[in-house]
Amino acid sequence: MPLPPARSNGMRDGIRTIILRNPIDVAWGLALEEAVLRLLGEGKSEATVIAWRARPAVVIGVNPETLKEVDLQAVEELGIRLVRRESGGGAVYLDPGCLIYSVIVPRRSAPEEAKDRYRTLSAGVADLLRDMGLEPEFCDLGVWVRGLKVSGTAQSMLYGGLLHHGTLLVSTNLEALNAVIARPKAPVANVSDLMGREVDPTELLSLLVNRVALSLGLQPRQGEFTPEEVRLAESLLPKYCRRDLGPLEVYWGTSSDGSVRVHLLVGRGGPIGAIVHSGGRVEWLDYPQAREAGGAVAEAIEHALTSDPRSGGVRPL
Questions:
Q1: Does 288 fall in a domain?
Q2: Is residue 103 located within the same domain as residue 204?
């Protein structure tokens, strides 16, 4: 079911699609979603579909009761991040084998009935699975194949916009999923297992965003996050990094020539990764990648690591 005819926010000429090919910290992904949603409501951004993957994490819903669905001891033992999102739904396990798609549109452009909204905004996943020769069906606000759930969804309607985000299990570590989710609500399966062959999640990223856009009756138009969206996302990081849901600190530094600026995310076990600003572009790098980058990037990271907390170079979240 396509969305009703677009009236504003750049949807007349299609919908912006953004693909993040490398796994990122889930807190950064959620902050980017919210930044686009907020700015869309202010008329400073546009309708967007994002496809991304996360480093291993458990994300609970806005209702703190969903924390009861999580085996906290297993989360601690596996060293997995625990984050709370602003949308409904239950606890989910994410890792690089799971695709995440985020649809951010004006509230008035989506169906009024909740079930219709979920069905409409989940249709792209079902279309992709049909392209792969599977027979998906929409059930319980998710997408199922052969009685097994492969895609779950959640929504929030804030700031004048609608955020619909969902998952697609491609090659997720189901052993870890079953360990950290204490009360799974449904039997799940990976697309790889259903296909009887290994499927590379990265090969589906572009196909997923395009299918989601087309299912809404909109042409995909490849884009990037704007500097304003990135700045706002950085300011929103603290709300997704609360200490009671897993400690995270953000250190920042710059290269001596000012050409590179980094936000270094540090967890219990040390540095996790870095948000790197360079040449007008923003990129997420895992910590080993960032260290190996050398040059101005490595210099900025070294500056972040050696910053004096009293100077404001270190910000605990």
A1: yes
A2: yes
User: Domain total for the chain?
Assistant: 2
DSSP characters for 101-158?
EEEEEEGGGS-SSHHHHHHHHHHHHHHHHHHTT--EEEETTEEEETTEEEE-EEEEEE
- Whether residues 255 and 205 fall in one domain: no
Q: Is residue 5 part of a domain?
A: no
pTM of the model: 0.79
End-to-end alpha-carbon separation of the chain, Å?
42
Residue 165 lies in a domain: yes
Whether residue 211 is found in the same domain as residue 273: no
Distance CA 226, CA 27 (A): 18
Strand ranges (E), 177-242: 220-222
Print pLDDT tens along the chain (317 aa).
Answer: 565 544 434 466 789 999 999 999 999 999 999 999 999 999 999 999 999 999 999 998 877 677 778 887 888 788 888 888 888 888 899 999 999 999 999 988 888 888 888 888 899 999 999 999 999 999 888 899 999 999 999 988 888 899 999 999 999 999 999 999 987 678 999 999 999 999 999 999 999 999 999 999 999 999 999 999 999 999 998 888 764 555 556 677 889 998 998 878 776 667 877 878 888 777 777 778 887 888 898 888 888 887 644 333 444 33
Domain boundaries, position 287: 247-316
55 found inside a domain: yes
